[in-house]
Each structure stands twice: as C-alpha cells, then as structure tokens.
Amino acid sequence: MNPLCLIGLILLLVCPTSLLARPVEVLVYPEGATITEQRSAAVVAGAVTLTLPEAADPESLQLATVGGKAAISALRYESTLAPAGDYQALRDAIAATQERLQAVEDTLQARLRALELWHAPLGEQFQTAGEVQKLADLLLANSEKLYQDRSRLEKEKKKIEKDLHELEQKLADATSRQHRSWSVHLTLAGAGTTEVLRYSYRVRNADWQPLYTLDARPGARQIEWDWRAQVRQSTAVDWKDVRLLLATAEPVVTLTPPALQLWFIRPANDYPLPAPRLMSKAAMPESLAQDFAAAAPAPVRQAGTLFDIYDLGQQTLLAGASYQLKIRDGVWPAQFAYLVRPFESPQAFLSAKLEFDTLLPMPSGPASILVEGVFVGHREFALLAKKLDLPFGNDPQIQVKVTPTREADEGGVFSRTKSQTWQWAVAVTNNKPIAVRVRVEDSPPQVEDKRIKLTATSTANGSQEDGPATWELELQPGAQQTIHYGYTIEYPAEMQVELGR
Asked: Domain limits at 434?
C-alpha cells in the first residue's frame, strides 16, 4: 500500500472527523450572523463529533446529511475549554515594551530636572546688563530645547503605554481560560464509513450596518447616491471564499401575537387606571421587487416578505477585521427647492423631493450628506416609501434679509380701543449661477380672545389658510424679490395683551 494512503487511513480511523470544516456560506444580520459549514466526516461506531467555535449558539444548530441515506437519530453537545497555548512570544513583547517605557520615563525625568535648574533663582551675582543679556540668551536656548524634548518624550510615552496596554490585554484574553468551544456528538442511523454533513449555527460576534452617501446636484436636478455595507467580523475564525449574504433586518423572534386586554370604563374613584401600553412598531412593509440590468455588478437582491437578502458572491473576511462592501449606487431624479423661515433663521435650507415608480427598500443607517461634492454633515437615512423629502442643509448663496417697515402702537387718550400694527419686508436674493425655487414661511398670529380683532394688511400673493403663511418664489441667477406683509390687531383699551413678537 502507498505510504501516503496508509497515513490517511490511520488519521481517518483515529480522528472522529477526517477533514476540518470551513464556512461555505454566511448570512449576516444587523445583529449577528448565521454561518453554514460543510464537511466530510468519518463515522466511528455510528457516531460523529463536530466542533463549533466559541461564538456559536449551539441551540441554533441546524444539521443535515448531504447525498447519503444516513439520518440523525440523536444529538448531544457540551462545552469544553480551549487548550492552553504557548504565549512566550507575547510575554517577551510585553517585557521589551516595559523596558522602552522605562527608558523614556528616565529620559523625561532628566529633562524635567534640567528645566528646574535653569529656572531656579540665580541670586544677584550678575551686575551688568551685558551679563544679564548673556544669561537670558543662554536660558532661552537651553529652555527651548528642553521643552521640545519634553513634549516629544511625553507623546512617545503615551504611545508606548497604549501599546503596552494592548499587549497585556491580549495576554489576559488568551490566558483567561474562559475561551470555550462546543463539541456536538451525533448518532447516525444508516451511515457509511464517511458522511458529508452540512450544518448552520448563529453567532453573536458579527454584524453589518448600511452606510450611505447622498450627493445633491441641484443644477442637474438629481441626487447621486452610494450604498455600502460595513461588515464586522469578530468570530475568531476566518471566512475564506464564503458566499456572503446580507439580510436587511433581523429574523422574526415573536412567534405568537399578544393577547387582547379587556377594556373597562369605570368611575375614576373606584379603580386606578391601568398604565398605558406602548404599541409595538409596525412591521416593515413587504419588500417590492426591482429589476436590474443583467450586466450590472451589483449584488443580487432576493426580495422577502419580512426582509431582503443581498448576495455579495464569494468573499474573504478575516477574523477581527471590518470591511466596506458595495451594494448599490445610482442617480435619482429630484425636485429641489429652498425653505426660508426668516423669523426663525436668516438662512435658506435646501431640500429635495423624490418619487419612485418602483421602491428599492433601504434600511436605516448613517449617511454622509454632500452638496455638489462638498461634505455638509451626517444624518440617519432610510428608504421605506415611494415618496421622500431629503434635507441638505443651509445654502449661504441664498441671502435673506428682514426689514421692519412699521411697528406702531396706536390709541388715543379717549379711545375705547387700542391697535398694534406690524409690517415687514423680506428680501430674498439668489446669488447662485442657477435659477432656484424658494418657499418662504411665517407663522401668522393666533388670536386666543374673541375681543381681539386681527387683520392682515398685505400678503403679497401669499397664502395663510390652515397653516403658516407661505410665498412661492422663482428666482433667476442674481435676482432678488421682496415680500411685503403685515398684520394689525385691535383690542379694548383696558385689556393687557401679550404681543408675542
């Protein structure tokens, strides 16, 4: 017999499993992941033992045999401590770092002592101005060098202390004896000498979140967008060449609906009212399918009833690393306009209105907001409806100026009434090279006493029915428009009125 074949046969008989399993597929959720492994295992006396990593939840284990007639008749799992390792290299690195830290501390103390000597009182032995000047020059030269050395050494000390802390933490984690793995013992019925097993389990130490970039282009009437996934992999096991799937939401964990609570209406003094119950958040609407060009390199989307899954194909993600992977990008047509509330702020705020024929749901996540490629801030973003308003911040190229033209308090000595009149001019100037639409809003007075009579003196084609007073402006590049409006109130002379503005 070939010696290599003999060695392989011996390993097959000695080890309960002949080949180490590796992940072949990973489905990552916003909080956790499901890892699928496949392995060819040796069956000894109808039994197979599998080893799951420390991060695995054994109760989530799903098992199946592949391509054979064997059936799993029994399953048992137990927690085992990871074997102790040789950590001498880590201990040597800690010792070397401690020596570096001590050397830096010694040098730093020497510099501080030298500074104390240069700044100590020198008495009155220097009599002439020349001697004092020479001493001052010498003190300046040496102090400046010592201060520079002190600053450099303090920075170096902080860095070494950080490195030392990280090394000590690694050693503590490695030798804590809290690291455990899970041994899963299977009993198979009708199994041969080897069986191919495919199994999956849930882990906690992996997750993902969406990252967005939204770039408003008002001149082109569009928004350029980019959607990426930030995937965190901290399972202590490398995912090499796995099929990577991303789920946009967590799986359902509430299996039964809540019971209805009886509703009683009683006199208030008989029984205390029950505490109000908070309604749970509504479930995400069913995802709608969207067609993409066959040539597009974007991940394939699998629309689901509760959440979507994106297939990113074969990926390699090393343990302890974080990755950004592209999901989608594109351009949305948008209608841009500016909102001005002159009595709240002298700024004009850019916003975009979006309408979609077909919805591509995007889960909530942080977004970088840009205007014409210039970063303006961060905000949370989600796309869960076919209509959406997006704010893009204030634009300094839209100038707003409010000028009060009249504020009068009128009432004669013998008059039974008093009146107050406000009149303003709001000038809006477009300093941009493109035409813009501007909506101006203001809160009209709200009269809370029928003895107070309110009259709008001028609205300049504005509207103020059932809400704020509004004016819609169309401004060409360099153009300015001014809105003139105001109000008059009349009330009894003996009445004290809070004017509010």
From this structure: 398-492
